[in-house]
Design brief:
The protein is of the alpha/beta class. It is 24% helix and 15% strand. It has a domain of 136 residues: Rossmann fold, CATH 3.40.50. Helix 5 links the parallel strand 6 and strand 7. The termini are far apart.
């Protein structure tokens, strides 16, 4: 036991400062938000769209525009390797979560990041949020990165966010996987067991759009076909920072000017 304590003292403080201070350094191999430069596209070229395994890329000619569906994107490199002009690249931007599915359709302009919950709901969940995780047919990659949030590096509990065993003790659901047919009823019953008000968070391409299984008859193309979704966190799987960033934005701990809605005019 003494050796364990000494080893822990030598390790020092391991919890990242996020969201305070500069964003943590990520590996050079990290694939963050993809961006497309239609100015580099050759006329009539659709190589990137044809190479995409989930049809996450749409190319329009007049005017030239490339639309990326981050909800379908698997963050593979098939499009990058297929493009002869290098018009698509991955950035190091891990901020990807949005409140609506439509906001994940990006064509050059800045991504509209998730805004906070409505004030009344935010007052309830802002300092204590209990989530029940539902793996609805996932491959365990998203589930693994969700579990990483509980380690000493991220320490999700310091934000008042915890995972619980029963939906009756939860404030909402965190769903992973494409929601297979044999999990659809289980997901619906779990959602119904959560006392209102409640929220749903879809984590990963599968939970948003079906991912690599999109349009397969044995799954439902994501959680939104079964339960209402309040936060979409894209990725395959999303980095733990991407998940944490989305959760904190949902709770009003982080704010992006592009996510703000105009206040109603005073009477």
């Amino acid at each position: 036991m003494l050796r364990v304590l000494l080893a822990r003292l030598r390790q020092g403080h391991r919890t990242i400062a996020f969201p305070a201070g500069d964003p943590p350094a990520l590996s050079d191999r990290f694939r963050g938000r993809p961006v497309a430069d239609p100015g580099k596209c050759a006329e009539g070229c659709r190589d990137c769209a044809e190479a995409c395994p989930t049809r996450a890329i749409r190319v329009e000619e007049a005017p030239k525009r490339v639309t990326l569906d981050l909800g379908r994107c698997l963050f593979c490199t098939d499009c990058v390797e297929a493009c002869p002009e290098g018009a698509i690249r991955y950035t190091q931007d891990f901020r990807l979560a949005t409140r609506s599915r439509e906001d994940l359709l990006v064509s050059g302009e800045a991504l509209r990041l998730a805004g906070a919950l409505e004030e009344k709901t935010r007052r309830l969940f802002g300092r204590s949020l209990k989530l029940r995780q539902v793996s609805a047919g996932g491959c365990n990659a998203c589930e693994a990165d969700v579990n990483v949030l509980g380690t000493v590096v991220f320490d999700l509990g310091r934000f008042g966010i915890q995972f619980v065993a029963s939906p009756r003790h939860a404030d909402g659901l965190l769903v992973t996987g494409p929601v297979t047919r044999n999990m659809q009823l289980a997901l619906r019953k779990t959602w119904e067991a959560v006392p209102p008000p409640k929220i749903v968070i879809a984590v990963g391409a599968c939970a948003i759009s079906g991912g690599p299984y999109v349009d397969h008859p044995e799954q439902t193309d994501g959680a939104a076909a079964t339960v209402p979704v309040d936060l979409f966190v894209p990725g395959c799987p999303p980095h733990p920072l991407t998940i944490l960033d989305g959760l904190l934005r949902l709770l009003g701990r982080l704010e992006d000017p592009r996510a703000r809605r105009p206040s109603p005019a005073a009477p």
